[in-house]
Structures are given as structure tokens and as C-alpha cells.
Amino acid sequence: MTRVVQKFGGSSVADAASIKRVARRIAAAKQAGNEIVVVISAMGDTTDELMDLALEVSPQPAPRELDMLLTTGERQSAALLAMALSDLGVPARSYTGSQAGVITTAAHGNARIIDITPGRIVRSLDDGDVVIVAGFQGVSQTTKDVTTLGRGASDTTAVALASALDADYCEIYSDVDGVFTADPRIVPEARRIPRISYEEMLEMAACGAKILHLRCVEYARRENVPVHVRSSFSDKPGTWVTDKDDTEKGTHMSDMEDAIISGVAHDRSEAKITIAGIPDAIGRAAQIFEAVARADINIDMIVQNASRVMNGRTDLSFTLPMSEGRKAIEAIRGLQDEIGFEELLYDDQIGKVSVVGVGMRSHPGVTSTFFKAMAERGINLQMISTSEIRISVVVSADQVDDAVRAAHTAFGLDSEGEAIVYAGTGR
Ligand code: ASP
Ligand code: MG
């Protein structure tokens, strides 16, 4: 018997009719002889609405109580789905994260899964039930309080359960057909990627591809869980995230085999800080980034230019999540006297465009192809960073779309004509 974990995002269970539709889909998979564990997100925008409500009641809600509130969203959809399944003659039982044995750290709002003790789930499966688990939540090992795992983290619940239950694979259902070579809203010629390695998917997720949660991909890679990203609105195959080249599952690369670049990702959520006129002395960069780290800010790219010959000073730029901009500026401004830099500049009119692909390991010239494509469109590169399988550039915000299109074309990723129907948000 095949054991499958199926995760349905909020857009797939937005109202009563969609809950019934998803139930029919699950029933069909169950009747085909599979053992099914379903992980469910809150209906539609429920989590956002609960968050807004909390902020109306209290400007700074206690994190413990916020988690008590937000976890009710997934609890609603889990119970409703169990009812719909049972009406179809399919025995089903819903469980909260805590009941399902999802044990986490105590960090409210951003807890990490430490362990899963799925005893109740296994017993329920043995009884022949479809098991439904409320995603995005768990219970703290130390405080025994209910926790949430961070926005969008139902994906992580699903992969973690798939691993704990030794499932054959994990299906992540949303309203898009899979992972694409670029965001089809920007590049209509983008194509679905039939299979992508964990490593590439990690880079894509870290570079702004929103289809899968970064932590979920990390988990899947570590535990070697094959993940099938697909649409709950169609029966089309989606994208397999796996290192296995398994032709039976349709995960073989076929026509994508010789693509050097798997995809182009973009991210508009970052800002750039430049500290100009830093005395070029040992230890200054360490001081600056110590202050930024103390403020608990994750930075991304860093560029330091050569010392200006005339005055022995240097400029340092780095990118960070836009949402942390104010905090970072305050932290660095506090160092101005101590370090003696001249100017502090903040720019959130930027975007990051990245090309990702394991093929670049063995193919020279990827960088020049990428940069030439940018130059031909008159796009100025403000910052550059690379990993073994990724090249990222920072460009001005209004050139992001253009840069994505140019890179997609330059690496031969454009499909021939056949437009892709794309409406969703990927959640
Ligand atoms: N409902 C939660 C959120 O919107 C978790 C999820 O959808 O994965 O962030
Ligand atoms: Mg959601």
C-alpha cells in the first residue's frame, strides 16, 4: 500500500464548495487503495483576518495568545474536511498539531519542529481512517503551549509528517501547476519544470520563488522526502522535487536534460543599505555586522568597494529584508561616532534577480551570458553574488520584470508559444 501525505493550501479550501471538492479528490485517492494523511491550511485568508482582528483588539498581542488564536484557522478547515469526507462515506478524523504529536520549540510565531510522535496518527491509519492534521502548528516540548511554525509553514508540517510516517511521497497542492522556469505572470513563455533537485529548489526558494516554503525544502532534502508540487484544480502532473531520476513517476528530465539553468527567480522584498566613507581600517566591517546581528537581522548580499585612493575610505553595501530596514538603520546609526563613517543610505527601490541551475557547475560562460543579456536591455547591475549553482544580481525595482524576461530568453527557457494558464498565488 502506498502511504501519501497530501497538503492543501488555503486557496484550495477557500469556502464550503472547495472543501467538498478537495474531499472528493481525497476520497478518490483513498478508494484507489492509498493510505492518506492530509495536512490542511486555514481557509482562504483566514490567518490574515485573525491577525488583523488580534491587532484591532490589542496593538501588541501576547505571542502565546496570538498562537492560540491563529491555530484555530487550521482547526476549522481540518474539522470541516473530516465532515465532508465522512459524508462521502470515507471515515476521517481530524487532529490538531498537538494531538498529531508535532513537538516544537517554544518560540511562538516561529517555532521549529523538534520531533514528531505520530502514535495517534498511525493508530488512526490502521483503523482505516483518512487522517487530517491541522498544519502550521505544534506544541512546545518545554512549556506545553500551542505554537505556530511561521507563515506558510503548513508545507513544513506536511513534509515533516511524511518523513515521520515514512510516507512514499508528499503532495503539496495549491492553485498553480507546479514550479515554473520563471513567474508566468512576468514571463508568459515560462514552462513547468517536471523535476528539480532539492539543491536547486532550495536556491529558488531562497531567491524569492514563493511556491514552497524554504524550511520545508530544507526538511525534505535532509529527510529525503520526494515532494510533488501540483494544482488542486487539475489532474495535471506538477513538479517533482527530488534527487531521484525516477522515470516511472515521470520525474525524468527528458527535454529539460540539457538546460544549464533550471529557472529564473526574483525577489522584491529586499532593501539595500550603503554605508559610505568608512575609514579603511581592520575590524570596521566586523563592528557593523555585529551590530546588525545583535538586532537579529539576517543579511543577504554584501559588497565592499576598493578603498578610495585619495582618502583611505571605503563604501559598504548590503541587502536585507525590507521589513528590517528601520531596525538596521537605527543599529548602524548608533555606531556613527565610533566608526566615523560619512553617510548612511537606504534604498528599497531594488529587486534581486537570480538564475539557478546545477548545470553551471560544468558549463563556463553562464555569467557572461547573464550579464550580456542585462547589458543589452540597459540594465545596470548594482550588486552581484554567486554560489556554486546560482548567480544573483540586484537591479533597480522598475527593471526587475525586464531582467527576468531577458535572462529567461538568454538561457533558452522560453517555450514555443504554448501559453500557460496561470491564475493563482501558489498558496
Ligand atoms: N495558514 C497559515 C498561513 O497563512 C499557514 C499556511 O497557510 O501554510 O501562513
Ligand atoms: Mg494560508
Structural account:
- The protein is of the alpha/beta class and 427 residues long.
- The chain has two domains: 3-255, Acetylglutamate kinase-like (Carbamate kinase); 272-347, Alpha-Beta Plaits.
- 32% of the residues lie in helices and 24% in strands.
- It is built from twelve helices and 20 strands.
- The protein has helices at residues 16-31, 46-57, 63-87, 119-126, 154-164, 198-206, 214-223, 284-294, 325-333, 336-339, 366-376, 400-410; strands at residues 3-8, 35-40, 92-95, 102-104, 113-116, 130-134, 137-140, 146-148, 169-174, 195-196, 227-231, 239-241, 263-267, 270-279, 302-304, 313-321, 343-347, 350-356, 383-387, 390-396.
- The strands form four sheets. An eight-stranded mixed beta sheet has the order 3-6-2-1-9-11-12-10, with helices on both faces.
- Strand 1 (3-8), helix 1 and strand 2 form a beta-alpha-beta unit.
- It is globular, with a radius of gyration of 23 Å.
- The two termini are 29 Å apart.
- Mean pLDDT is 93; it is low at 251-255.
- Residues 9-10, 41-42, 47, 73, 135-136, 151-154 line the site of aspartic acid.
